[in-house]
Amino acid sequence: MKQRSIALLGCGTVGRGLVELIRKNRALIAERSGVDLTISKILVRDMGKDRGDVDRSLLTCRPEEVITNGSDVVVELIGGIEPARTFIARAIGEGKNVVTANKAVLAHSGAELFRAAAARNVRIGFEASVGGGIPIVRALTCGLVGDRILEISGIVNGTCNYILTRMAEEKLSFAQALAAAQKEGFAEADPSLDIDGIDAAQKLEILAELAFGLQLDPGRVRVQGIRDIDLEDLQSAEALGYVVKHVAIAKDLGRELDLRVHPAFLPKNHPLAHVRHEFNAVRLKGDAVGEMIFHGKGAGGSPTASAVLSDIIDLVKGDTGPVHLPEPVEKPVAPDIESEYYLRFPILDVPGVIGLIATALGNRGVSISHASATLVRGAPDKGSVKILAHRCRESVLRKSVDEIARLPVLTGKPVVLRILEEVT
Ligand code: NAP
Ligand code: HSE
């Protein structure tokens, strides 16, 4: 039996999940892997915080006690860019293998950290950075190593999916659903990373790099979050036979990449429509294997700890090969896409308002497949017009929507959501 120790940077939702998982399954892990795993030290900010059953004698506020203490692997579970980046770089400099669940630091400084790791002949495991407990990094790098991946799509932010599910199914307000996601430990320390789509975009960059063998500069993904979505949009979706999901899509179009995360109307029979709460799903198409879908918990301490642990065991067993560093790629991201659209315009209930909106769309050739208005008796400023638009170019549609947004009858910001009939 190999005796191996790990040092943790961070003991929050995921850190505590990992401590608990090792305590609960230490004998099972040893039996399966031949590795008896112990925790040598844990870095925290606040020594006084209640951490349940975590052995308090392991806690420290001094990073050097964790990074340079002779452990076999340093596990970064702090989140964000700094000081996580500096701590990972120092651990690599000490010749340590590193495991991280931190997609933000990988999206921001991944290339630099992977280069440093290659130079020191150590590895960075990052299974938990995408899809929580779903072993999607391993699937792309090992299980599907023989496949050319043609496209990848999915739901990769547990917080957004949890919020949209609870709003749609229990009629919670956006604020109530977000507070519940935070209480469950699904959201990032700064939840705007979740609800503004940034976390999903960082994960999509990682997936696209693995799937297409690219190294992307940060910020290449077209991003739309769920902040503007209202109960009214979810109810309209339901009435029209759709559900609203926050989706992530990556396609290599040859000369261009299509990389985007955004909320979308999905038909109720779409494979991603059934992914609920904090679950994630990644759907991919390989040239040999065909279509596959991976489904599992995408956030939460215990599922994420499961993914972190798989990296730790790989690293201490020395099962993994040398780091592969793809070349940076200059491919542009497609500037425009075609889609069907759902539009909601908050309006003043005055004669001719629907005609004004229809004319602004029609003038640019945007054709309407459905229109309805919700008007509140005695509250003319609480009306809204909802439209489904036939397939059109987004750039054209946006010009019409911008023109409508300037009309004096508009009482709020228009909501524009793509309709995915099928992710192809
Ligand atoms: P969290 O609950 O906020 O925990 C962060 C931990 O890091 C806390 O223990 C905190 O110490 C410590 N910490 C923060 N700043 C520090 C600093 N400057 N110096 C020392 N310690 C510091 O975060 P989390 O939810 O566990 O997430 C950790 C990472 O996993 C993030 O990268 C996140 O994106 C990723 N992830 C999270 C989930 C999830 O479901 N939560 C799922 C997948 C991936 P104190 O406890 O003393 O404040
Ligand atoms: N905040 C992230 C999410 C955690 O909700 O998906 C998992 O990466």
Characterise the protein shown here.
With 424 residues, the protein is of the alpha/beta class. It folds into three domains: 2-129, Rossmann fold; 141-298, Dihydrodipicolinate Reductase, domain 2 (2-Layer Sandwich); 338-419, Alpha-Beta Plaits, CATH 3.30.70. It has 13 helices and 16 strands. It has helices spanning 13-33, 63-67, 84-93, 103-120, 136-143, 158-170, 174-183, 192-195, 198-212, 231-240, 301-317, 353-362, 394-405; strands at 2-9, 35-43, 59-60, 73-76, 97-100, 124-125, 149-155, 222-223, 242-252, 257-267, 279-286, 290-297, 338-347, 368-374, 383-393, 415-419. The strands form two sheets. Strands 7, 8, 9, 10, 11, 12, 13, 14, 15 and 16 form a ten-stranded mixed beta sheet that branches. A six-stranded parallel beta sheet has the order 3-2-1-4-5-6, with helices on both faces. A hairpin with a 4-residue loop joins strand 9 and strand 10. The longest helix has 21 residues, at 13-33. The chain is elongated, with a radius of gyration of 24 Å. The N and C termini lie far apart (48 Å). Bound molecules: NADP nicotinamide-adenine-dinucleotide phosphate and L-homoserine. The site of L-homoserine has 11 residues, from helix 6. The site of NADP nicotinamide-adenine-dinucleotide phosphate has 26 residues, from helix 1.
